[in-house]
Amino acid sequence: MSSAETALRIALVGNPNCGKTALFNLLTGSRQKVANYAGVTVERKQGRYVAPSGRVVDLLDLPGAYSLDAASPDEAITRDVCLGIAAGETRPDLLVCVADATNLRLHLRFVLEVRRLGVPVVLALNMMDAAARRGIRIDIAALERELGIPVIETVAVRRAGARALIERIDGPLPALPDAGPADLDLHAEVRRLLAATVRMPTRTAATDDAIDRVALHPVWGLVLLGVLMFLIFQSVFSWAEPLMDAIENGIKALGAFSVAALPEGPLRSLLADGVFAGIGSVLVFLPQILILFLFILALEESGYLPRAAFLLDRLMFKAGLSGRSFIPLLSSFACAIPGIMATRSIQDPRDRLATIMVAPLMTCSARLPVYTLLIAAFIPQRTVAGVFNLQGIVLFALYVAGIVSALAVAFVIKRLRRDRSEHALLLELPSYRWPHPRDLAIGLWERAWIFLKRVGGIILALTVLLWFLSSFPAPPDGATGPAIDYSFAGRIGRALEVVFAPVGFNWQICIALIPGLAAREVAVSALGTVYALSGSDDTIAAELGPLIAGQWPLATALSLLVWYIFAPQCLSTLAVIRRETNSWRNVWIAAGYLFALAYAASFVTYQVTRMLTS
Amino acid sequence: MRLSELLPGNTAVVREVEDVGSADPIARRLRDLGFVAGEPVKLVTRGPVGGDPLLVQIGFTRFALRRSEAARVWLQAAGATP
């Protein structure tokens, strides 16, 4: 008999912010599998552990829900799995309903709903440590008697905090609970239960009130948010740099070492310029993504994120987004891929789609090499108004242009939408908590893995394809120009010149745009290849700068800078949009509008600059 | 009086949640979250821009509600403002 047949199937259910995932992490450790439920982009987290009796327990961490009367795809999944009607899911043998002991007025109502499902239930009363600190007294025996289901105390952030729960689960399955009368008023029942079993000195925690007085203050709250965001940005870019250099050089050295024994030829070129360059261009972003996600996870676990959403909701709502869009858009400054992945926390499907659509407009770090090259070559090093550096101002303006166009696009999406029904905010601001290192580590690992698996595959495949296009056919004997000029990519570039002449791009730029499809920053090294330079990106940029400064008109350079604000040509972003929205239509819309905006903006920039400079 | 008209720092008691249109999902969700007759509710503070959204304490939980959401909640006259 396989263990899958004998394994006990348990699902964790509970309100959002009840500490359910922390409990899941404590029970299963790193033995987790993250995937999607069939047909929807709701995250499915499964894990397993071996009970003291030797029995295997399969644990499913269901999405948090306020009610089984589902209001979002997440809640619908939770309801369907509990009812045993979810596609491809077996009904659990036992539900462990998790409730925050400090928030029972809200959470007990859901417990009463779960009790009606006709599945054995155990109530895990979580965060008993926080409850004790606040002087909350719960008569466990009385609660167990009144509810008619076993009640176990847990502290998910303590190593032995789930021992009693593990032992209870390992024992005989509890009897099917009495559902109570069908017309039971759940709120009245909760009030009765609280009055009979819980003594609560204060309705809120004093620390929450104290922190919120600053964190939600109209002035200080916004200042605090600004400072936090600034610190995150600083660390993402400054801490990640040495790691990124190390990864880049390491992969390069590894590539050189592995191909050294191979004879000069297509195979060697495929490995060095295709496979290793592809792996390198994926891995190089990993440090930034990990650092960014570490901050986001810590803010999320601590309970600060909903506060940020509270502060910014009005502004983002006016633009057709929601306060919850803030974090996905912030992540997109590192890379749109984790940003789009982070939109899963937005419940309203329309807000989520709008956020996904504008995420590529946030200036991702892959555009920086292009910006630095062009700014250094074309914008004079000059001081403006005594303190500001002109080059810095241009870079800042490019970032602002991205943000402004994102808000404008979101606003247009809002206008065009046929479904004008109201968007709900209804956002819970949970108690502040210290993030637990175990939960941070598991969360980081999960995200890094998703990034590598999803993005790695497609980028690698595309790099190899682009390598093929740029390498074949080989230049004829006695050819003088760079090899890429004779290849398919070269021919495509020349053909594209017709399309891009009105925005001022020469054929060299058109060729560089093609490998830039895989990863934007590759455009710099591709330009280097076209201008027949060799070396690392840094030296290429150093030599390429003066070269293009001498050859390109200013209008072309500015046009290319503006092009990269919109830069629709990131195939991995489009692939993630496809995965996250389950629709090719959205991919075409995103690619189409980004291309149209880029072309229009570059056209205006090119023509206006030409008029002014001629 | 509606919850959206309550002043920051003040407490009142919920009378009912009004449906906007038929089968209003937002009203239904508000009731699930505890906005039911007899429940004390407090307006903790308001958002920095245009006084929206509102931070509301119901039971032991705090929720951010947009004005339009809070306008669905009617309060009992007694104990509204002193």
Structural write-up:
The complex is a heterodimer of chains A (614) and B (82). By secondary structure, chain A is of the alpha/beta class. Chain A has three domains: 3-203, P-loop containing nucleotide triphosphate hydrolases (Rossmann fold); 220-361 and 398-434, no CATH class; 450-613, no CATH class. Chain A is 59% helix and 8% strand. In chain A, the strands form three sheets. A seven-stranded mixed β-sheet of chain A has the order 2-3-4-1-5-6-8, sandwiched between helices. In chain A, a hairpin with a 5-residue loop joins β3 and β4 (56-61). In chain A, α10 runs antiparallel to α11 (266-283), α10 packs antiparallel against α12 and α17 (368-378) packs across α23 (537-551). The radius of gyration of chain A is 28 Å and the shape is elongated. Chain B has a single domain (3-75), classed as Ferrous iron transport protein A (FeoA) (SH3 type barrels), CATH 2.30.30. Chain B is 15% helix and 33% strand. Chain B starts with 10 loop residues before the first strand and ends in a 7-residue tail after the last strand. The chains are: A alpha/beta (614), B alpha+beta (82). The interface between A and B is medium-sized, with 38 and 31 residues. β12 of chain A pairs antiparallel with β4 (61-65) of chain B.
